Amino acid sequence: MQPARWMHVSRWMVAASLALTLDASHASQPVDRVILVRPSGAVVPANLLRLSIEFAAAVEGPVIRRLALSRADGDQIQQPFLDQELWSPSGKVLTILMHPGRVKSGLKARDEKGPILSEGEDVVLTLDGNSIKHWRIGPSDAMGPVPSAWKISAVRVESKQRLVVTLDAPIEGREADYLAIVDSTDEQVEGRAQLTRGEQIWTFTPKARWQWGPYALVARGTLEDPAGNRLGSHFETSVDSPLGAPVDVVVPFEVR
């Protein structure tokens, strides 16, 4: 009976060891689930500067080496990203910068390696070899946000109707809170802000009911678009012409 008992124990230990090995193997394989990639629209400018990836849960370990950007023919674009990972406090949102030296014209990296993206091509962003986003490359955007071209929807007095602001072009996807509503006393109106439709629509649902009278949409001066252009300044600004201090923009409207 003694040998049989030890044989039973030995088999159990082998099975347990195999199970642990399989568990470790599965654990080492990336299983991070992507919820959203921004820019979320179908088209991005040829001078795209940043993108962000939102995961379902906090991610452990570096991600940038697991990412690749390829053209539609499968040709992988070499060294498109700046080797730096910018994480949100939650550990769920990763912001990646395209290599600025290849985005901004007149720099050595761009002259030697060429631009990262070209108008008219299609590119695919992959994580661990799996496609997570496809973009069509449009023309470069050197203008930046133009608040005077934004359209603000009407809302009903004494309602909690959602306010819809149609922007002239997409803004950076993580900057929904860079826009705010203030009332006639310059107090910020509490509510929920959200970017939709490829970050070109900003919506605001107030916590309290709209009151009759003047309001204003305030855009923080550091608001940027996906190409790095800010309100009143451009990413392509010459190094000989330093940027001025960011200035907030106020767009008045009325509720009647």
In brief:
This protein is of the alpha+beta class and 256 residues long. It folds into two domains: 34-138, Sandwich (Immunoglobulin-like); 147-255, Immunoglobulin-like, CATH 2.60.40.1220. It contains three helices and 15 strands.
In terms of topology, how is this protein built?
Elements: H1 2-28, E1 34-38, E2 43-45, E3 50-55, E4 67-71, E5 86-87, E6 93-97, H2 100-103, H3 108-113, E7 122-127, E8 130-138, E9 151-152, E10 163-166, E11 179-182, E12 191-196, E13 201-206, E14 213-219, E15 249-255
Parallel strand pairs: 2-8
Antiparallel strand pairs: 1-3, 3-6, 4-7, 5-6, 7-8, 9-10, 10-13, 11-14, 12-13, 14-15
How would you describe the overall organization of this protein?
- This protein is α+β, with helices and mostly antiparallel strands.
- It has 2 domains: 105 residues, Immunoglobulin-like, CATH 2.60.40.1220; 109 residues, Immunoglobulin-like (Sandwich).
- Helix content is 14%, strand content 30%.
- It contains 3 helices and 15 strands.
- The strands form 4 sheets. A 4-stranded antiparallel sheet has the order 1-3-6-5, with no helix packed on it.
- A hairpin with a 4-residue loop joins β12 and β13.
- The chain is globular.
- The protein starts with a helix and ends with a strand.
- The N terminus is likely disordered.
Oligomer: single chain
N-to-C SSE series? HEEEEEEHHEEEEEEEEE
Distance between the termini: 92 Å
Residue-averaged pLDDT = 86
Number of domains: 2
Helix fraction by DSSP (H/I, runs of at least 4) = 10-25%
Strand-pairing-aware structural class: alpha+beta
